[in-house]
Write a structure and sequence with these properties.
With 129 residues, the chain is an alpha+beta fold. The chain has four helices and five strands, in the order αββαβαββα. Strands 2-1-3-4-5 form a five-stranded mixed sheet. It binds tetrahydrodeoxyuridine (THU). The site of tetrahydrodeoxyuridine (THU) has 15 residues, from helix 2.
C-alpha cells in the first residue's frame, strides 16, 4: 500500500499548480475506508494564500466525508524527501495523529514517521475550553 500511495502522490505532483515556486508537491492520503485521496499544492498570486499538497488532499477527503486516515505519502521530484510543513502537520494531526507519514522523492531516500512524533506536545481540540 505504501508503494501505491507514493505512486499516487507522484502522479498528483504532476498536477500541482506551482507557477511561483516551481516546486511541485503531490500527496496521497489513505482513509480508514481504504479510499485514496490525492492533491497537489495550489499556489496563489498572493503567496500566503497557497495551499500545500497535504492540505489539498485532506480537503478533498473531508469533502467526501472521510475524517479518519491511516497514511499519507508526499512526493517531490527532488534528491531528498520533503517532510510536511508545520501547518500541514497540525491540520493532519487534528484528524489522525496516529497516521503514518511517508515522504518520497526521485532518489531512494524515504522518510517515514508516525505523525504524532512529528508534532510532539501538539495543540488539539482538547486544549479548547
Ligand atoms: N509545499 C507543499 O505543498 N507541501 C510541503 O510539505 C512543503 C511545501 C508547497 C508550498 C509551496 O507551494 C511550495 O511547496 C514551496 O514552499
Amino acid at each position: 500500500m505504501k508503494e501505491l500511495l507514493i505512486e499516487k502522490a507522484r502522479e498528483a505532483s504532476a498536477l500541482a499548480h506551482a507557477p511561483y515556486s516551481n516546486f511541485q508537491v503531490g500527496a496521497a492520503l489513505l482513509a480508514e475506508s481504504g479510499e485514496i485521496f490525492t492533491g497537489g499544492n495550489v499556489e496563489c498570486s498572493s503567496y500566503g494564500g497557497t495551499i500545500c499538497a497535504e492540505r489539498s488532499a485532506l480537503c478533498s477527503a473531508v469533502a467526501a466525508g472521510k475524517k479518519r486516515f491511516r497514511m499519507i505519502a508526499v512526493y517531490t521530484d527532488t534528491e531528498t524527501p520533503t517532510p510536511p510543513c508545520g501547518i500541514c502537520r497540525q491540520l493532519l494531526n487534528d484528524f489522525s495523529p496516529e497516521m503514518t507519514v511517508v515522504s518520497a522523492c526521485r532518489s531512494e531516500k524515504v522518510l517515514e514517521h508516525r505523525l504524532a512524533d512529528l508534532l510532539p506536545e501538539a495543540f488539539s481540540s482538547e486544549n479548547l475550553e
